[in-house]
Amino acid sequence: MNTLNTNDLLKQGAIWGFIVLELVFFTVAGKYLSLSQNAFMDLDNMLLLFKQSAPIGIIALGMTVIMINGNIDLSVGAIFALCAVVLLDSMSWPFLTGLGDWVIPVSWGLALLTGVVLGAINGLIVWKTGVDAFIVTLGAMLGYRGLVFMFNGEQPTSHLNWTLVDFAEAQFLGLHTATWFLLGVAVALWLLMTRTVHGRNAYAIGDNREAAVNAGIRVGPHMMINFMIIGFLAGLSAVVFYSESGSVNPNDGSLYELWAITAVVLGGTKLTGGSGSIISTLGGVLAIQLLRKGLGHIGADTETVNLVIGSILIAVLFLDRQLNRKAKGELRT
Amino acid sequence: MTSFTPALRLQDIVKTFPGVRALDGVSLTVLPGEVHALMGENGAGKSTLMRVLGGVLQPNSGRILIGEEPTIMASPLDAKSKGVVFIHQELSLAEELSVAENVYLGELPRKSFGRVDWDRLHEKTAAILDKLKVGFTPQTRVGDLSLANQQMVEIARALTVDAKAVIFDEPTASLTDAEKVVLFDVIADLKARGVGVIYISHRMEEIFHMTDRISILRDGQYRGTLHTAETSEEELTQLMIGRKLDLSRKINHAEVGAVALEVRGLSCGRLYSDVSFEVRRGEVLGFYGLVGAGRTEVAETLFGLRDPDAGQILLDGEEVRIGSPVEAIARGISLVPEDRKGQGLVLGMNCRDNMTLPQVDDLKAGPFVAEGAEIAIFDQYRDKLDIRTPGWRQKVGNLSGGNQQKIVIAKWLSMHPNVLIVDEPTRGIDVGSKSEIHNLIRDLAANGFAVIVISSEMPEVLHVSDRIVAMHHGKVIRTFTSEEVTEESLVQAISGIVAETAA
Amino acid sequence: MAEMTKRDVGQFLARQGILVAFVIFIIGFTLANQRFLAVDNVLGVIRSSAILGVMALGVTFVVISGNLDLSVGSMMSFSTIVVLDLHDKIGPSLAIPAMFAMTMCLGALIGFLVGYLKLNSLIVTLGMLSAIHGLTLTYSGGKNMDIADKEGTWFSLFGQGSALGIPVPILMFALLAALLSLLLAKTAFGRKVYAVGGNGVAATFSGIRRARVVFLTYVISSFCVACAGLLQASRSMGSQNTVGQGLELEVLAAVILGGASLLGGSGTVFKTVIGVLILGFIQNGLLLVGLEFYVQYVVTWVIIILAVWLDIAANRGRLWSPIA
To answer: How are the residues of chain A apportioned to helix, strand and coil, as percentages rounded to the nearest 5?
Structure first.
């Protein structure tokens, strides 16, 4: 849409450059260090990488929308878990069992609806009370988690439906179901944010909220829609993941919000809102997953992954600031 | 004036805020095809009136009529749809978005499914940009534009609707002379098309160059409307401030002592270059120039907030390097900053704590802050500067602008500085407090302080200064003594014209 | 005038609402269950809140200075694991100072990044949350830590001992709260913390070394985390790598509940203690009246939002947000 200057190109390209760097590093290092005989850039390995990126990736894409809009959502992990519980629990609800395999779309629908409703509650509170989204969703993170426990106490909720597992493990054109969902969501959100009035207004609100208000953009509804979108996506992520695994622990999904935010920030979305790109977040998600797999591939302890990701996050923040630093003589405040 | 039906009429507008009657029965009539200036001091109610007109605020009583039709401006968008467009003084743009998106912010053209109609958007924007003769395209990111071009984007917004009235609030503040010419062309074009233009500015030369009629506000009250051709600056000023301007010069110079601060060839990037001056004890040195001339930046450098590229700073004849405000304070330099609320005060803190903030480390009773000593300082300066507050526990944010400014001045006086720099000491302060602060500044110098006053108000500079440094585009054009300075020579100097008779 | 007083009452309720709610809760629970205000129950509540509380004391400084600390949970896991490991290697009297030193180095690192390099505290501490978790796992090799000889050491004193009939964790919480309250309310440093959080630019213009103040708030926070880690390790004498996981947000909830603004510049140590106790007593009260532990999550959610909402509403003078 916009003419890109070199700085922008550098920033948008950075995450892909980083991914290439990772690929090269792990391929080369893998030759010397890897215990397995397989090459790192193995096709199956890469396909798996996409599939494994999906659960957090789908949420991170939604988080991008929220952060472009100038908000944050800390409750996505809890929404994810609650949707998963609804998905699996509803399959054994007496009035649904008569449906046979038709219970699947009903349960999916219920799980997604749960996500949308929880997101809408967050959005409505942010809109109507004026309390900062950080606090609203911090509270909701606790509250929604409480609701998760109300279903089955501390027991896991399980329901394995083989039709569902088959669907989840299916591959179409070589890609797993989960991958298709991830890519589909990415395309849909990319279109939403770059092509629609809602998307452009969301950018405007995150960029300069007062200007948006002055221009008559209704800030509240836009924010609420975005919270509903991320709620829906948290539900979708749960649907994708738990269709296959069939069992959810009440603590599942905790810290997902932090992983999602990490991916979004790696993708270059501005914390204060107004700037960011869905595609770059997809890059951020892949970069993190690549790092996990790569470190495993070269035989590093899985424990170091967290250390490396955390350090990279801070390094990115530092580099970003160095790149954007103003000219000499700036005010020292 | 092509028609006798007013484009816009405001009738007896009253707007109150808790404790303040910001607008007290103001009426204003704007005819189609006229440029109508709105003048008044800071705080006279111009901005409030325009915010009411633009739908940002709702009046407590009074009527707004557009083409003699009574209307209610429910929101800025509502106002815009009714043909009243507000060009903001503070830029109200989304920097990450394109020019076109900003011009049509809030009303992007749509296709099916809520999609943006980019083709139509760019086409319409391009047509408007053509009219403005600007050198950028609809697709340019606004953040990449210069300040002046961003202003042009603001103006382009006014041209998106069939405007009946356009409000310009200090539009030239950040424009270069060439850009001003373009702006004046735009306004002339609007005028020719029968649009009523409301033009808010402090710059007399623009008012007399541009406008047909002038309405004046003072303290929230309407003070009359004059035909530009039939009035003079003097009459306007008198209406604005309610009395004859005290243009008295500072004649009785105090005993001038040794040089306290000398600056030689100081330069800082593109902000200013080769600035030299000196200030003696017992003397007030005024800095006059337009916004952006580099005066504030020089002060910030002296206070250790900026790194100079070149030049020397000498305190009491000794060359020093000032790397931070902490060092500046230790060397006896104090700065009353330009932005009182943003830089001078912690608004949520009480009066006493704000006042003693720079010396809180030195007021010790054992491991704790000596609150008794703090209260003593507060009491001393409250009496000395006549600060009106219920008590030291009062949050500074609840005080009036004048009292807030006195807190900031007290904060730095209580540090007993060698050099006191005061940047825009009376901005946004009522007339009464203004002269108090002026007297205070003169007293300070009489008591042996070296004082630097930076101001954009000529009467103020003339009134308090012993000598005046005129700056233009980061350069010192000339230094006047209070005996030789005239308003004409000063205006010429800050416009970059070096008088042939320069001493 | 009557209107004014009504407004004043509203303002008072909104500002002190959290205390009012606290009192109502206590009365309600006491009516529902006589045991609620029994001395041993009260002590039990405070004791079980002590670890969260000690961490919240430190985070209060960070929040007042206008920043966030999301790393305290994983930092607490780190200090717990480290002190348990070192206990068997070099003995408790060396292990404790070593653990404090290591934890405070992490705090200093965060303080350096946020204070001196001026990086966004949310992201820095988010990164540190992850990095310190990785560090802990690397240190422990992913295994649980246990003290081998649980009977033959005085190390259990901090978590399980008591003095004058009061459990040591409560004493430690109270002592720290008192000291930090003095530091924040009465010293020049405390004043600067408020100034930096209230208006960082004005603080700089007043000759306050902002970076140093921010740096020190994180060092204080990490000191509190080390204390919490010590309490945790001593109470359980063994630990998983994830013992502190998720606590960062609960700690933040307690601080916000106490009335500190995330924008900085407001809050007190005393209010944070109230916030911590509210969380503790609600949890306890709900259990006593026979509700499951997770009900407190839902209740906490409602209370946090109501508390912040009322505070904002009192400031803007209207209940609902003016956002269109």
So the answer is: 75, 5, 25
Q: Does C175 touch chain B (CB under 8 A)?
A: no
Mean pLDDT, range B303-310, rounded to an integer: 90
Q: What dihedral do alpha carbons B231, B234, B239, B244 form, nearest 10°?
A: -150
- The hierarchical CATH code for the domain B8-241 is 3.40.50.300
Nearest-neighbour CA in chain A from C124: distance (Å)? 6
How far, in Å, are A231, A276, B122, C147 from residue B141 at the CA level? 32, 14, 13, 62
In this structure, how many other beta carbons lie within 10 angstroms of the beta carbon of residue C3?
7
CB-count exposure of residue A195 (10 Å: 0-12, 13-18, 19+)? middle
Q: Is the pLDDT of residue C164 over 50?
A: yes
The beta-carbon neighbor of B347 closest among C192, C199, C209 is C199
For residues B322 and B261, is the Cβ–Cβ distance under 8 A? no
Q: Do domains B8-241 and B246-332+419-503 have the same CATH topology?
A: yes
Say if domain C14-255+267-315 classifies as CATH 1.20.120: no
Q: How confident is the model at residue B499 (pLDDT cuts 50, 70, 90)?
A: very low
Q: What dihedral angle (degrees, nearest 10) is formed by the CA atoms of B365, B371, B372, B373?
A: 70
B373 touches chain C (CB under 8 A): no
Which phi-psi region, left, alpha or beta, contains residue B87 (left: φ > 0; alpha: ψ -120 to 50)?
beta
- CATH fold of the domain at B246-332+419-503: Rossmann fold (3.40.50)
Question: Domain locations in chain B?
Answer: 8-241, 246-332+419-503, 347-416
- Reported as a single tens digit per residue, the pLDDT across B152-171 is 888 888 788 888 888 888 77
Question: What is the predicted pLDDT for the residue at A18?
Answer: 85
The reported pLDDT for the residue numbered B502 is 41
**Residue ranges in chain A whose pLDDT is less than 50:** 1-4, 327-328
Distance CA A284, CA A182 (A): 13
The better pLDDT of the pair A67, B178 is held by A67
Query: In degrees rounded to 5, what are phi and psi of residue C98?
Result: -65, -40
Q: Inter-chain contact A204–B115, Cβ cutoff 8 Å?
A: no
* A216 contact residues in B (CB cutoff 8 A): 75-78, 80, 106-107
The predicted model scores a pTM of: 0.85
Of C202, C209, C324, the CB nearest to B345: C202
Sorted by where each starts, the structural domains of chain A and their CATH numbers stand as 40-316 (1.10.3470)
Which residue in B has a C-alpha nearest to residue A277's C-alpha? B96
Three-class DSSP labels, B318-360: EEECCCCHHHHHHCCEEEECCCHHHHHCCCCCEHHHHHCHHHC
A61-103 pLDDT tens trace = 999 999 999 999 989 999 999 999 999 888 887 777 777 778 8
Do residues B284 and B250 lie in contact, with contact meaning Cβ atoms separated by under 8 Å? yes
